[in-house]
## 1
Amino acid sequence: MTVRKVQDVEFGVELPAFEPDTSLDNVIRFTDAAGWGGRGRFTDHEAARKEGLPGAIVPGIMSQGLLAAMIHRWAPECKIDHIDTIFRAPVLVDHPHKITGVVTDIDEESGKVEVDITVSNEAGETRVFGTSTVILPK
């Protein structure tokens, strides 16, 4: 269900989960758009392994962007006021991931909604989690 205003939101409801594109091609597009030269650990599996990583990793700011995209799929009219994330482990390039969210607080008077957000890998391990405050029209 697409949410248009704060009155449409229910406490505890899960946002529609989605599987983001964490392919090497997409990460290269992101780093190119960001103007990052010498992308190393983000776009080269071997370079990442030389740094002790299991392979290329999705940039943290891209992971946050994917979390924001999930929120906007759920509530296209919302303003994302704040996203606070904790990076527990790398989000690996070319591996499937799932982004989920759940509503944890609603303030109908201000239109503010708190959402817990998570990026998990194919084994169900949490890679990134956090909280977002979004503002919806009344």
## 2
Amino acid sequence: MTTFRYLVAGFFMGLAELLPGISGSTIALLFRVYEHIVISAKAITSLVFWKNPIQEIKKYEFYKIFLLIFTMGLGVALFSKLIVFIFENYTEVFNLLIAISMILIAIFIYLREQGKIYSVQSLMPLAVGLLVGFLLEKLNITETEISLITLFIAGIIAFSFFIVPGISGSAILVSLGLYEMIIKAIATIDLAILLPFGFGCLISLIILPRIILKIYFNNKVELNNFFAGLIFISGIFLF
């Protein structure tokens, strides 16, 4: 049953990462596999692991992670073309649903685990998130030339939000103006876009388990408020 849980979790995590406002890591928490994923990510990027990989693979039950990654990739492959079809043929409805979901998710993130929602400590990071989202919209990356560096940085940022529970990497891609490009690249296997983006994701995987997660768990409320503001304003701009 435990192995089956990883198979199902991976599938729904893949689907979740395609949809703005829904976090794959939140799905991992739901299926109680998140902690194992983080511990495994830390382990596989350590020197100890590569000195004796076979022993470490057995120790951390990496076969479950491999199964999860496989079904996650399967979920992405099966639904990416469907989402592209809906996006291209029902753009206004699709954008409206994304906007509503992002706004609701942002409100949920801000309100949960809040003691004083109107305190300076709560409102300040929220305001900063709104400002950053506004500036990203004015920057409008889609109107500039998309370079390898841009895709690489987008990969780092998107995967960062994949690891942090409650925050959707796809929502951040919407904020950056790169959501449609990345989804189409996945659906058509456009390696010119996927390789630099994927390399950014890989770098994020190596760095984040040691740095970002530590910051996140020490400043969870403040960071979530910042993310809430960023996602909320991005949803507003989609209307």
## 3
Amino acid sequence: MAKTKSSRRWLDRHLSDPYVKRAQRDGYRSRAAYKLLEIQARDRIVMPGMRVLDLGAAPGSWSQIASHLVGSRGCVIALDLLPMDALDGVTVLQGDFREASVLARLQDVIGDMPLDLVLSDMAPNITGTTVTDQSRVIYLLELALDLAHTHLKPGGTLVAKAFQGEGFDAYLLELRRTFSRVATRKPPSSRPESREIYLVATGFMAKGFHP
């Protein structure tokens, strides 16, 4: 099947992207690695010994970064609907965590120890219909927050990809009720034309916890 003009443009842009070339040179699985590295440089969200859950992990560049930063005393769990090649120091789970069986597997891996950090680079399949796409974005953000409520330790951190639009302000308000500090970040490696931003929510206020 012949490539469409839009797919050719995307491929040309992708192959000429300096972050794509840099990722290949540095051994990262995708250019997204630099988004996390740039957030890390500013906010210091990942520290040695941490327990980290990476949602929407495939192909694995964020898990690569997190595993390196937490070191041998830490733990990284990667979860995605898509298959993901194994990574040293990372427990990889494939499945939809909205399903009870997948959530049970995740709970078994997490165990009784709470998480220090939940990362979510999840994004929905784009339909091209703004209202539908934005509602799917907010739904994924809500899922990430629900999981953080269940598994984050007091004082823990959630980092999630978001797109401004319908429902964003309400979600941001909920984050601010739940975390002591919420910042928005647009990493330099995020393409300028992309509407994506990252919400960095620190100081999880679990029930009965007051920072």
